[in-house]
Amino acid sequence: MTPDDIIERLSTHTTLGGVPRTELEWLGASGVLRTYEEGAVLTRAGGAPPDGLYIVLSGHIVIYVDRGAGLKRVMEWRGGDVTGMLPYSRMTTPPGDTVAIERTVVLAIESARLLQMIRECHVATGILVHTLIDRARHFTSSDLHDEKMASLGRLSAGLAHELNNPAAAIERSAALLEDRLDDAERATLALGAVRLSEQQLAAIETVRASCLASRLQGVLSPIQQAEREEAISDWLADHGLDERLAGQLSETSVTIEALDAIAQAVSGPCLDATLRWAASGCSVRGLASEIQDAAMRISGLVTAVKGFTHMDQGSSAEPVDLAQNLANTVTILRAKAREQSIAITLTVDPDLPVAIGFVGELNQVFSNLVDNALDAAPRNGHVEVTATRDKQRVVVRVIDDGPGIPPDVQSRMFDLFFTTKPVGKGTGIGLDLVRRLLIHNNATIEVDSIPGRTEFRVLLPSADDVGGRP
Q: How many structural domains does the chain have?
């Protein structure tokens, strides 16, 4: 292809065809024709940036990005488009693999000549800057969408894990409840066949009261529970009664003294029927209580998720209940903390002022920071979340006891696509998203890190701060 042919191709180029002839001549004389066969890789994810501006004359180029869920086609260019290193671009590493999916011809302006192009080709440079802005806007939109989907995935996984335990408890207790109700009905019929005096009824009422009372205060250790069950089993054996009742009775607050009182009031078959009635009745009440507790746990999780996602969020900044929103965030991520044997604590000053911001966006910020802290903390480590007052602002701290962040990484950690996590584990989007959301919320973020302690501080405007009022 002759120089005149190149200029002729550029004059019909969709993006650059309208620039002055002199600028087309400069581009034609300064560029190098390159041909990429189908399957050729122009840049690799995380590798060296493009070595120049690529004016696509023909063919088809695609960039594939892996953000943890496999390769995804994010953007593509055909004949008439421009790509590569655009003027004023701050790209240091490509976000994905750029591949020619069919035979492609480009006119490449090497990076070393871009400054000269800016001086010589004002119209072309203006067009290319607008192209850069459009490309950045496209990637930003895609990044935000992918990060929100990733957050939704983490939320769904954590919620499924959290809901599984109470749901399984309800299923287990409901299955046992049917058997215990049959036992209670038979015991009630047997007890009803025996005429009891007022003194005997009073003794039975003592056992019934123990079932109506709360479960044993605190949680007994396995050894303590075994000792209690063994003591009741021995008592039943001494009185010639079915020792299998010991398991059900040991889970109530009934005492040996209460059993002695019943034994003094009733005896023989009447005592056996009384204790069976008491054991089955206590078991039914206990199972009903477990079902209620599990259902309340599910309701609490749903409330936490609604608060976390803030479904009814408006379009303007509003007062934020940080104590509740941080509690919701910790609740959502507690399953991940347990899986990694990491302790996570939340401490909020009782006189914490009301913060001002977009609740859903702040929840996204705190979720990303706590999730990153859990990734950084070692097994059996600790993550601490605190919220305190600092003059007229509110400070939320997320602290982990991980290995720390090297100084050279700290200077780049908020850059888009920069990540130190393995491929498929980190996208390099989370902290960039945090930075952008905090700017939108008139807030700032600071980082201090040494081996064994990394602290992210989010400084938010409060309702006490005139400048932070909505």
A: 3
pLDDT on residue 467: 47
Of 127, 160, 139, whose CA–CA distance to 27 is shortest? Answer: 127
pLDDT digits (tens, 9 = 90+) for 311-323: 445 556 788 888 8
What distance in Å separates the CA atoms of residue 306 and residue 324, rounded to the nearest whole number? 11
Within 10 angstroms of residue 212's Cβ, the number of other Cβ atoms is 12
Q: Which residues of the chain have pLDDT under 70?
A: 67-70, 139-162, 164-165, 169, 194, 207-208, 210-222, 293, 297, 300-316, 335, 412, 414-430, 465-470
Distance between CA atoms of residues 302 and 56, nearest Å: 51
Residue range of the domain that includes 329: 315-468
One domain for residues 293 and 388? no
Give exposure, 109-119, as e/b (b: 16+ Cβ within 10 Å).
beeebbeebbe
Domain check: are 170 and 286 in the same one? yes
d(CA 137, CA 156): 28
The backbone torsions φ and ψ at residue 93, rounded to the nearest 5 degrees and listed phi first, read -140, 140
B/e letters for 415-445, b = 16+ CB within 10 Å, e = fewer, are ebbbbeeeeeebbbbbbbbbbbbbeebebeb
Q: Give the containing element (helix H, strand E) for 450.
A: strand 444-450
Report pLDDT for 292. Answer: 78
Q: Please state the pTM of the whole predicted model.
A: 0.43
Please indicate, yes or no, if residue 126 is contained in any of the structural domains.
no
Say what the pLDDT of residue 423 is.
40
Residues 31/6, Cβ–Cβ less than 8 Å: yes
According to the model, what pLDDT value does residue 213 have? 57
Please check whether residue 250 is in contact with residue 220, taking contact to mean a CB–CB distance below 8 angstroms.
Answer: no
What are 383's strand-pairing partners?
344, 400
Helix (H) or strand (E) holding 401: none
Here the tokens at position 221 are 């250790």
SS3 for 446? Answer: strand
User: Given this model, what pLDDT does residue 317 score?
Assistant: 73
76/64 Cα distance (integer angstroms): 9
The contacts of residue 5 (CB under 8 Å, 6+ apart) are none
